[in-house]
Amino acid sequence: xxxxxxxxxxxxxxxxxxxxxxxxxxxxxxxxxxxxxxxxxxxxxxxxxxxxxxxxxxxxxxxxxxxxxxxxxxxxxxxxxxxxxxxxxxxxxxxxxxxxxxxxxxxxxxxxxxxxxxxxxxxxxxxxxxxxxxxxxxxxxxxxxxxxxxxxxxxxxxxxxxxxxxxxxxxxxxxxxxxxxxxxxxxxxxxxxxxxxxxxxxxxxxxxxxxxxxxxxxxxxxxxxxxxxxxxxxxxxxxxxxxxxxxxxxxxxxxxxxxxxxxxxxxxxxxxxxxxxxxxxxxxxxxxxxxxxxxxxxxxxxxxxxxxxxxxxxxxxxxxxxxxxxxxxxxxxxxxxxxxxxxxxxxxxxxxxxxxxxxxxxxxxxxxxxxxxxxxxxxxxxxxxxxxxxxxxxxxxxxxxxxxxxxxxxxxxxxxxxxxxxxxxxxxxxxxxxxxxxxxxxxxxxxxxxx
Length: 451
Prior knowledge:
This protein has 18 helices and 17 strands.
């Protein structure tokens, strides 16, 4: 590894998908197995929950980790990408790995990393798994990076695997149809290991289940085994969200949740949007299956409601603490953008603004189409601000505005995300809302500028 002033700099110098896209993608598990063997196979000393999916895997992994924490377990959580510091990828009970630990680990194991020659993602996954072992976690929840079958995380032999959703994304690497992509995600199935899924699309579901069973996985479709129904505000038995369980913004959703184990009654979800209901159900079911002592109803309710506080999750539709009018959502494909737009609550008399920053390998025109044709009952965008991102994969503000326009949106180039944010803050009223979306990098750019 090249010499650098800090461990983070040394790791960030490795080939990164966030910067170079497919050119930095290194499919296959040989390097990961070699790297973990050099680290004494840390992933074998604790049970794991492995979570894949086109959308929703970060939310589902966080819900599962939060429920397990509320049940009294010490829980490691690996998610990606990070927003501000790569140490966010390796969290225990919501706290990122300390800089001193990362510096020491890279000093001790840098030679092994250099000998194997991993990508940035492979190195950070390995370090996460090492951190969890050295800190003696009771359980680790690990989010797949891309796909499943050839993803670096697929060295795990989990106690339960989960697939959230299958849609069209990374089609250049995973396949051009949802059936092909579903097969790749089913690649995390292991012989005798429960594979739970919440896939709704019939073709994708059939492909996923066939492939998973062919690999020996024990398949459970939670949309069949669980029941999730809206539980409007004030539903009988519904409890108020605990203080600090959700960021400022609209009232958190409530659903009635029933699993094969028990009827939890009305529960509060700490992440906004109707799409989170099945993510939460999948996570609860994974927590039930993963533990010989399933979580109590109290742990499930607290874990779902307090997911952001317990796990440190950001950018899934929550309001920005520095300006609660700003809603941050890392959605980066058509299904995610649709869910993000559906979840934004604009007060009466307010207007919806959208700050978008999209990478060049994403379908920005699809976002433009969603902005141009909002469903009945949802606010249309008052102004769409196209922001340019940095890096080889980035679209300039001008190119993004043009792409959004091809979808039908009236977008204006607005410079960097920070400059676009200032346009909103200079002109918006107290009831206006700004949705920041399009990429993890867009949300990260806003968070990095917070006071």
